[in-house]
Amino acid sequence: MAQPTTNRLLAAAKDIWEGYLQHPFIRGLAEGSLAVEKFRFYLLQDYVYLFDYAKVFAQGVIKARDPAVMRAFAAYVGNILNGEMDIHKGYMARMGITQRQAENVRPSLKNQSYTAYMRAVAAEEGPAEIMAAVLSCALSYEYIAKWIIKEYPKAAQHNFYGEWVRSYASEEYAKDNHELVRLMEQLSDGYTEAQLQRLEDIFVDCSWFEGTFWDMAWDMEM
């Protein structure tokens, strides 16, 4: 399937995404040298982030007119709350963190800024714009994890960080992302240049926010 819109978005954010691969947090994951307390901070911030991320998808259900699109957005709400969060819950169990403790974590200011931006897009704009807002998070994790496995082949077997790497580099995760890309192309079909530029702006903004999330995790910044 041709994916001109997604390719345009990825090209626009190329420099930002390449920066992820140089980030000390990502390099620490790849090398297995990341301090556990930094990962713990990241994990809990990402856990509370996912609740707002799911709410953005839920707005897609509200905004969509096509029942098939509604079902697709709804399915991703379930995938996030009952699938991706399993990665976090596995690590939480290993670190002695209860679900209740995690759900009471206060999101950092950078976390709040990121989710507020996505939720504003979801509240004010349409399904394609919502997809542009969520896509950078989903695709960049696959991009990072597959790069780690390529450049650090032993990373997937690391006794602590290997689970994170394997999960986001998995075929199952890639399959879910493929469906998101398909939906992005469907929703943006027939868009004008001005509308496509808006999608690009949203995607680049969210890619930038992804970078600030890694900064926040590395600095353990509230």
How would you describe this structure to a colleague?
With about 220 residues, the protein is mainly α. The protein has helices spanning about 5-10, 15-20, 25-30, 35-65, 65-95, 100-105, 110-125, 125-150, 160-170, 170-190, 195-220. The longest helix is centred in the middle third of the chain and has 29 residues, at about 65-95. The mean pLDDT is about 90.
Gyration radius (Cα, Å) is 17 Å
- How many DSSP H or I helices? 11
The separation of the N and C termini measures 42 Å
In the predicted model, the low-confidence regions spanning at least 5 consecutive residues are none
List keywords for this structure.
mainly alpha, globular, 222 residues
Short description:
The protein has 222 residues and is an all-alpha fold. It has helices at residues 4-12, 14-20, 24-31, 36-63, 67-95, 99-103, 109-124, 127-151, 162-168, 171-188, 193-219.
Q: What topology does this entry show?
A:
Elements lengths: L3 H9 L1 H7 L3 H8 L4 H28 L3 H29 L3 H5 L5 H16 L2 H25 L10 H7 L2 H18 L4 H27 L3
